[in-house]
Amino acid sequence: MAATHAKRVLILALMGLAAVNLFTGAPLLAIWVGAQVQGDAGGLSTTAVLTVVVVMALLCSGLVWGLGRMGAAYDALTGRAAARRQTTWMKPFNSGPAHSSSGGLSALDKVLIGAVVLAGLGFEAWFFLLAGSSLGSA
C-alpha cells in the first residue's frame, strides 16, 4: 500500500516536472543548443534557427510522449480504465455528449491544466511586474 502510494506520488511529481519543462526547459535548452551552433559569428544564421526548431520539436515530442506514458502508468496504478482517445472531429454527430464516461479528468489532465495556469500566471507576473514599459517616458 505504501509502495503504491509512493509510486503514485513519484509519477505525479515527474509529470509535473515534465509539464513545466514543456514551457521552460525545452525552449531554453533548444536556444542554448542553437547558440552553440551559431558560435561567435555575427548575425543570425539559418543553421542556428533550424537547429533551435529541430531540437525544440524533438524535446517537446519526447516530453509529450513521456507524459502520455506516465499518465497511463498512473491510471494503471489507480485502477482507472484506459479510455479510448478519439479526436472530436472523428466522432459521429449522433454519438451524444463529448463527456468522458470514465468519471472526470485524469491526473495527467489535472497536471497539464496546473502547468498551463502556472505558465500563464508566470507570464502575467513578468509582463506586469518585471518587464517595464515599452512606451518609455514622454
- The helix/strand series, from N terminus to C terminus, equals HHHH
Helix content: 55-70%
Total number of helices: 4
Broad structural category: mainly alpha
Shape: elongated
Could you describe the 3D structure shown?
This protein is mainly α and 138 residues long. The protein has one domain (2-82, 104-129). It is built from 4 helices and no strands. The chain has helices at 2-23, 25-38, 46-78, 107-130. Helix 1 packs antiparallel against helix 3 (46-78). The longest helix has 33 residues, at 46-78. The radius of gyration is 20 Å and the shape is elongated. The N and C termini lie far apart (66 Å). The model has no long low-confidence stretch (mean pLDDT 86).
Supply the key terms.
single chain, 67% helix, 138 residues, 4 helices, mainly alpha
